[in-house]
Amino acid sequence: MYKLDAAITGWINSLSGNSLLDHVVITISNLGVPLLVLAVAAQWWAGTERTKTRHILIAAGLTFVIGLGINQIILLFDQRLRPYDAGVTRLLIERSSDPSFPSDHATATFAIAAAFLIHNLPRRGLVFLLAAILVSFSRIYIGTHYISDIMGGALTALFAALLVKALYKPETGVDRFLTNIL
């Protein structure tokens, strides 16, 4: 399985080398997560169904944090080398000091998309899903992750979204308190 993972990762990374495209993809990689977080936060005051939207925004934030927390637990047990350290990819940005699996970028972006999709805001969810795919692709392209790191991050995000959906219910006291802030 590793050979297939490395082959696909190496092929995607081999697409790099065009300075303009490299610059665009590096920018997507660097700004993707913060821009998605801003896109979520900006919706706090938007729309006609504010209570429902705010519930989903809080669920997205919880999914984001829980997903990244799960990643930290996984890192206690798996210290996978980055693909550039294994000679699979050529790195286009600064080296990272943490292990490769799972991808925090993938977890963060897919967490947002999964929260919107699971909580039945499909159009917004699909936009966030496309953004998550783009950011995640950029992480492979620039040489920082294997494709399986991305899939692991996406699965962590999905698990976190399902957990939040099961535990954070609309119209509870906590939900009413949080959705009425500001």
TrEMBL record:
Domain of life: Bacteria
Keyword Transmembrane helix: yes
Protein name: Phosphoesterase PA-phosphatase
Sequence intervals crossing the membrane: 20-44, 56-77, 101-118, 125-144, 150-168
Keywords for the protein's UniProt record, in alphabetical order: Membrane, Transmembrane, Transmembrane helix
Pfam families membership: PAP2
Domain Phosphatidic acid phosphatase type 2/haloperoxidase: 56-165
